[in-house]
Amino acid sequence: MLDFFTIFSKGGIVLWYFQGVSESFTGPVNALIRTFILQERSGNDPFTYNSLNLKYKLDNEFELVFVVGFQKILTLTYVDKFIDDVQLRFRDLYKNQLEQKGALKLLDNFDFKDDFLRLLQKAEQSSKARAPTSMKTYEESKKYQNTVKSMIETKGSDTGSKKSKNGKKKASETGGDSAKAVAQSVSNKSSSHKSGGDVKDTLSAEEIQKNREEFFRKRNKGVGEKPSKSPKPDKKKGKENRIWELGGNSTKDLDYSQSLNGGQSPVDQSKEDVAELSKLVGRMKGELRSVDYESSEDEEVAEVPDHSKASSKKGGFGGMLGMLKGLVGSKSLTREDMESVLEKMCTHLIEKNVAAEIANQLCESVAKKLEGKVMGTFTTVSSTVKQALQESLVQILQPKRRVDILRDVLDARSQHRPFVITFCGVNGVGKSTNLAKISFWLIENGFSVLIAACDTFRSGAVEQLRIHQHRLSSLYPSSETGGQSRVQLYEKGYGKDAAGIAMEAIAYARNQNFDVVLVDTAGRMQDNGPLMNALAKLIAVNMPDLVLFVGEALVGNEAVDQLVKFNQALADHSMSDKPRLIDGIVLTKFDAIEDKVGAAISMTYITGQPIVFVGTGQTYSDLRSLNAKAVVSALMKA
């Protein structure tokens, strides 16, 4: 049933292995180490490699890794318990050898096959389906007894027959019962009056006549007279126009076609904008500056456990005992020790805009990393868990591969071809704006840029790019660049095939010796099937060098859904065996979130790809690179 089972140390020494098939398991295990163990990822679902499912368990006390592999078409319910049993048995048998970590050697005196096979046989037998229980006889069936009992009618059991009637008859019976009750009450009253004597005998003839006249007067008033109503207004009052305090109340205030700012024409206003933008020239040369967060004393305060803060105010022995209670004292950490701290950490991450699913997986990964680890004498559980979580977050944000766009553009130039970057994302996240920022950065570093307007769906998309191209061209006149503009726009209008426009733009850039082609695509929701198919077609046909997903830093759980479905759409509609997926992320609106930087963790964790650019404002120079340690510091700040 199992393809393989291997036990190795975190240093890479294979201590023992079992192989159920002839194929080598080195490739799947190496992929698991790169993807999960080194990246410190954790999840309930097994790791899939081709046709295999892999599960693993860490033993942090002896720094061991237990890995099992089986075919993914099989549903093996006993795998998790089986790994736990193997871990405990292996530790018990070879505890003395494992404690001498320096003496461990490859396959050195670990005769574990008999114990392993016995545990495997026991696990397989326990997972077998149990024999079905015998069916009850017709007489023993409880349903049979209840059905017959409900069908039997006995004399005097009127309640059962009443319940079986329909709702209408029930209502009539209820009404009849109420009428009977009223009649009974009237008869009771009349009997009480009779018992007390005749009422008329106690009243004089004048009083009887007076009461009779009063009765008829009230009755005639109720029938003949109608209650007075307030007079209706002659005409319904219309809705008044709202007058805004800080704005105009006429559409004439929105007409900018004549003049602006005291008779200044739009052309003059554009010249002022260019003069303002010219101050930015020369600031973006070389590598981008990183996003920095200033560390404050709050970060140090956050490391102190909550109970020690509260107890320190009390003073005396109460504060000392509260502080000592959080100390571990040279013992192995258990899941129970970390449970309360991990719960607080998970809540803290969610409050910082990390997706709930990702926060739970991160805390689960930290728990696996620390479970069984022996702590120092004067070390608190809270500080230990926080340190481990901080290291895991930095590891996640560190890119698995370095994306150096300037170097890649130079390599493409040496091959006499343009370097192609495609931007994709949902609606309204700032794709066109950040594309213009990246254009400015590339122009600052001496490259020529061709912008391909492939958003043929949204009205005004081409005009928006044309304005950016006009402003950037005015900053770098063609006279200073040998007669050729540093930035040009390639557009074919609206309603055209985006993949075809991108192909024509790349061919035009190759003929005109442009260094970079930036492809702007239409914003689309991840659930829009036709538009997702069009995006997959554009990428599959043109094969860009870099596919960047543009996402805003304001999203939380939505980031997971967006990235998963974008990657899934690119994989499903690819025309090759190895589909092109998202290569990097552009994180926008980073200046609007303060320290709620959890979206960076969610996006990087889902894709495993780095955050290449960070948008921090609305000007062309507001473009940064990601500083992993600074972001984690802001994320962990209380």
UniProtKB/TrEMBL annotation:
Protein name, entry field: SRPRA protein
InterPro entries documented for this protein: AAA+_ATPase, Longin-like_dom_sf, P-loop_NTPase, Sig_recog_particle_rcpt_asu_N, Signal_recog_particl_SRP54_hlx, SRP/SRP_N, SRP54_GTPase_dom, SRP54_N_sf
Domain SRP54-type proteins GTP-binding: 610-623
Comp. bias (Acidic residues): 294-303
Location of region: Disordered: 151-271, 291-315
Biased composition (Polar residues): 248-268
Entry GO CC: signal recognition particle receptor complex
Principal location: endoplasmic reticulum
Amino acid composition bias (Basic and acidic residues), ranges on this chain: 195-233
GO MF annotation list: GTP binding; GTPase activity; signal recognition particle binding
Compositionally biased tracts (Low complexity): 178-194
Subcellular location(s) per record: Endoplasmic reticulum membrane
Membrane topology value: Peripheral membrane protein
Keyword Acetylation: no
GO biological process: intracellular protein transport; SRP-dependent cotranslational protein targeting to membrane
SUPFAM superfamilies: Domain of the SRP/SRP receptor G-proteins, P-loop containing nucleoside triphosphate hydrolases, SNARE-like
Stated family: Belongs to the GTP-binding SRP family.
Annotated keywords: Endoplasmic reticulum, GTP-binding, Membrane, Nucleotide-binding, Receptor
Top-level taxon in the UniProt lineage: Eukaryota
Keyword Membrane: yes
